[in-house]
Amino acid sequence: MPEPVTTTIDVNGHPCRVWTKGSGPRMGFLAGLGGLPRWLPFLDRLAERRTVIAPSLPGYPGATGHTELDTHLDWILAMRQIVDGAGLAGADLVGASVGGAFAAEMAAIFPGHVRRLALIAPFGLFDDQELAADPWAQRKDVLPGLMCADGANWNELVAAPEGANSVEWPIEMTRASEAAARAFWPLGNTRLEKRLGLISAPTLILWGDRDAILPPSYAGKFAQGINNGINGAARVETVENAGHLAYLDQPDAVARAVLGHFA
Question: What pLDDT shows up at residue 66?
Fold first, then answer.
């Protein structure tokens, strides 16, 4: 398949890269920790049947402006600008990890902006009986095994893409980690449980059975929070042999589940 088309939108006066590929109804993807340094096999699978639109999050590869976002509300409003600017208002939305928390917020606060929702191990909740791991407190050599069931998949994601400056690339990835920390430190807790009941979009929750960042039991907490709302309809599927970023470990299985939910 050809390379994705690259465009740029403005978010709070800062550039944000948007990748688009495929044909068919639009669907958006908000990436997890590490962002999108490169186009992924998972996105190619989705693009075989849908027009996939993948905007970068502020501070992640392809976008700047995270230092302007001081509060959780700042981040939510930036996400609204991204969804609008990328042409995703009213489309299906997939969010993973940190991007999953933002996708859930969009569906809760701006329900007309999200037709159907798929969440892959989203951040946003906290349970003091089952603590999440702190991804910002890990040694570099430990992180791959926390992010993916096969740590090589994480290493491949964050490796410098073709054409990147070998000196500047580690700085860019550090900036991405800083951006996520500004939004979710500590432990990814944004009290999202208070807003889950507002989600009316049909929701699929996918969780890797080997997630070492967020306990798989959190999937049930998300589903319960959504289903306890007035119009909530959420279900959970487990992705076998997958870690926190299940779309890196099992791109075909995750894509099949997402496409089936959005059919």
Answer: 95
